[in-house]
From TrEMBL:
InterPro entries the record matches: Globin-like_sf (IPR009050), Globin/Proto (IPR012292)
Ranges in coiled-coil conformation: none
Annotated TM spans: none
Source organism superkingdom: Bacteria
Protein keywords: Signal
Signal peptide: 1-21
GO molecular function terms attached to this record: heme binding; oxygen binding
Protein name, UniProt field: Group 1 truncated hemoglobin
PROSITE patterns per the UniProt record, alphabetical: PROKAR_LIPOPROTEIN (PS51257)
Amino acid sequence: MKKTSLLLVAGITACTSFFVACNKNDDPPMPTAMTLYDSLGGTAMVTDPANTSMQIEQGRLGIRSVVDSTIFVIAADPELNPYFATLLAEVTAGDLSGFQMLSDNLTDFLCVATGATNFTYDGLNMVDAHDPAKNPRMSGKADDADFDQFIADVVVGAQKNALPDYLIARVGALLETLRDPVVQQ
């Protein structure tokens, strides 16, 4: 009888321990889905090739690299470069300040839009940024064909940086959400 009582107490203790150990409140948190920013390199710090004494988040560096490549692709694109006449005139004259400002604004915008938490975008909203009446750096209003060409140029810029196709598709889907505020004619 004493042996049976001891086994019963041991069994109850084991079952109680099992059920307490399986309490859902003690389960490890479920991993959250990776943001596009995380997929582009996230917050891992790397040396900035533009300034080797500085560190930069790998996600930001990746986005900046695609942005800069895309600006050069657009500059060579006869369908889109007329929209950037002011910028192209500045660069031709050796003034890179407008290029740097555009690169910084687009990089900030895309960092925030892809899920980065360490940056803010302080530039114009998309409607004002693409309205020549509110942004004198724009030389005209874009139509759907222009926006399609812009996305095609971003794809080329991303490919120049060896971005995998699945990430290019995610960036393209993100950009597509901006069609309505960007296309103004």
